[in-house]
Amino acid sequence: MSPRRRDTEGTAAARAGRRAELLATAAEVFASQGYSATTVRKVADAAGILGGSLYYHFDSKEAMADEILSTFLDDMWAGYDRVLAAGLSARDTLEQIVVESFRVIDRHRPAVVLYQNESKHLATSERFRYLNDSRRRFEEMWLDLLRRGVEEGAFRSDLDPDLVYRYIRDTVWVAANWYKRGGRLSADDIAKQYLAMFLEGIQAS
Amino acid sequence: MSPRRRDTEGTAAARAGRRAELLATAAEVFASQGYSATTVRKVADAAGILGGSLYYHFDSKEAMADEILSTFLDDMWAGYDRVLAAGLSARDTLEQIVVESFRVIDRHRPAVVLYQNESKHLATSERFRYLNDSRRRFEEMWLDLLRRGVEEGAFRSDLDPDLVYRYIRDTVWVAANWYKRGGRLSADDIAKQYLAMFLEGIQAS
Amino acid sequence: MSPRRRDTEGTAAARAGRRAELLATAAEVFASQGYSATTVRKVADAAGILGGSLYYHFDSKEAMADEILSTFLDDMWAGYDRVLAAGLSARDTLEQIVVESFRVIDRHRPAVVLYQNESKHLATSERFRYLNDSRRRFEEMWLDLLRRGVEEGAFRSDLDPDLVYRYIRDTVWVAANWYKRGGRLSADDIAKQYLAMFLEGIQAS
Amino acid sequence: MSPRRRDTEGTAAARAGRRAELLATAAEVFASQGYSATTVRKVADAAGILGGSLYYHFDSKEAMADEILSTFLDDMWAGYDRVLAAGLSARDTLEQIVVESFRVIDRHRPAVVLYQNESKHLATSERFRYLNDSRRRFEEMWLDLLRRGVEEGAFRSDLDPDLVYRYIRDTVWVAANWYKRGGRLSADDIAKQYLAMFLEGIQAS
DNA sequence: CATGAATGAGTGTTCATTCAT
DNA sequence: AATGAATGAACACTCATTCAT
């Protein structure tokens, strides 16, 4: 490794680090104020620079949202794919997927909130077509999983599959709105209790 | 009833009707595009009038959101209060509250979506203080209900009450995002299945 | 005089009375808020009717200003012409003109304020050309009067005539801004004291 | 003085200079068209920039008026205070105050016109409370001065003090409407002749 | 990398005006 | 005579974006 190469790497890494910092800030502001209500200036203020200066790093406000969302989705699918590749039973897969989901929320909370609130709207633009792709793959994954669980005798057969899908999907992801890293309950704690409710319900047995 | 009185009533009713029409349109647009991303002109377009004409009926965009939200919340609490006054067991109360919630979603779908997405943001302004009041009352009602259910031996005691509260709250209300009146499943159908999942879980027994 | 003619006259008189009432109201509002800052609705509110209803009586906001100003100017010139026709000395003429001016202020206070504040701006439009005509005639009248007074040995000759003209003009008319009918000093009282100051100054002799 | 400090000063001075330029332009337009009838775009046009660009420099149209008026009033009172501190006789003080007033008109002509025409209206808003404060202090100063002049035997005692105050106040300030820098008569020339008229009147002696 | 100044399209809102009733 | 509802142009102001420095 030549010093020159080290310098270049150092610079590139520094730049990437700055990008990541700015994106984290932007995601936080987008999540807390809403994408549309967030001005570029607010993001810049939160980052301690002037509005125009963000354009040195990003092409547009949309580009920031794009990078925030695609980073989150890539990470999410990497985790899901690991689980799905493990060849577990439907019940165990569901467990792992839910656990993985709360870990993703832990790592990408503001991005998840942004996704939750704005993906429907953003997906109308060509640039965000992948949001729809992801959503469709997500839906297929869950419907397959639920169907398999019924076949394997693990899940009840008297419930509407679409409804069950939406039930779990909504419940898990909307939790990003209140989840706080380092709070009383860890992501894994929440996953465990949510799973208990999904599977067994809240009724005393 | 004299003709004159009928005329007056007709006029007043017509005016109220127009307001309600415009509010319904506005709620629809706010819900589908987001409050902040919705321009007053978009609302007016959807209503078939010009942007400025809305101001004959309403003081501001905020005033429209205000009326939409307070109408919905008033109706919701009227329903809840009827249930709570009936003196049912915790389990039956939960059932009725969930059923009532889906009926409110049926009647006020766009308002519920608006509430879901924007109340946090809107509540920072004095005018929408009642949003916070309602949220607090809502939270108390649920925590009381869940505590009582545990005492009555109806609900499991091994779950975190705050978490259960959020679980049910989120799951019910977020359904407003996809619920469609006149779809395959009625509001009561959805309530019934959601209750089954809340209480018994999706696991085969 | 036939009954029919009396009816017609009665109606016409009533209509003219309503016009005059509305114009008085409009003048009051124009004077107190400024022509441009006064909305048609404010005038209508002050008159106890709705904004659109004013258009039954007047063609436009400008038409109201027009009628207010021309009525005032006509009355003012009628008074001035009476004075000028009397063939008095310059000194006595000045006295009478000043007295007459304060009487016009008494009768048309809001119109005078409107004239003071807006004539410059309004006079750019064709419709208000008469404002410039009046101003020019007014200026000529005063310069003649002052010149004659110097010739007659009544007025000092060491002062700039233009300056003296502006001095008196401004001082008299700007009083409309604070003059109140029925106040401690009548219009004639003020005229007398102003004349004392114009002629003799405030210095003890 | 280090180069760095010089740079910083240069930049700050340049910014202040731009502000002052824009304010001078705005004052000119406000004075000639009236505050309310002046659109922000007209101001921007006169400054050779676009409407929105003004908001980089100022928070609002009101903020411009605020800065214009407070700058003028601060300068005026600084001048008055110098005169008042000199301990002159009432007569000499009056002379100096009038001279100073015309110098202020010379330096702040459009601001004075703006003040004249709009202060009554603007002063209703909290932000412009200082307009009322200044007006009150101004009134007290004059009434004190006139009373002292009578006591010192310099001014006539047969005139109404309030009336004399208004007479002088109006006459001096309304001159801002026609005063032109570099015209036939300098500010000091006008002051001298106005003083002659105030003190001795226009009557030949 | 960042700033300061500007752009220009668009936003919520106002308002003079119209007109069927 | 007056109302109620609407129009459409204009307004103050915002904001994503650009660019010379």
**Strand composition percent of chain A:** under 5%
Task: Indicate the structural class of chain A.
Answer: mainly alpha
**Overall residue-averaged pLDDT value of chain A:** 93
By DSSP, the count of extended strands of chain A is: 0
Give the C-alpha Rg of chain A. Answer: 20 Å
Number of domains of chain A: 2
**Shape assignment of chain A:** elongated
- CATH level-1 class of the largest domain in chain A: Mainly Alpha
Q: How many strands, which pairing sense, and closed or not: the largest β-sheet of chain A? A: none
**Helical residue percent of chain A?**
over 70%
Order of helices and strands of chain A: HHHHHHHH
The largest chain-to-chain contact, stated as pair and per-chain residue counts, equals: A-B, 40 and 40 residues
Instruction: Please identify, by name, the CATH architecture of the largest domain in chain A.
Output: Orthogonal Bundle
Structure overview:
The structure is a homotetramer of 205-residue chains. The N terminus of chain A is likely disordered. The radius of gyration of chain A is 20 Å and the shape is elongated. Chain A folds into 2 domains: 59 residues, Arc Repressor Mutant, subunit A (Orthogonal Bundle), CATH 1.10.10.60; 142 residues, Tetracycline Repressor, domain 2, CATH 1.10.357. Chain A is mainly α and 205 residues long. Chain A is built from 8 helices and no strands. Chains in contact: A-B, C-D. Chain B binds a DNA duplex (21 and 21 nucleotides) through helix 1 and helix 3.
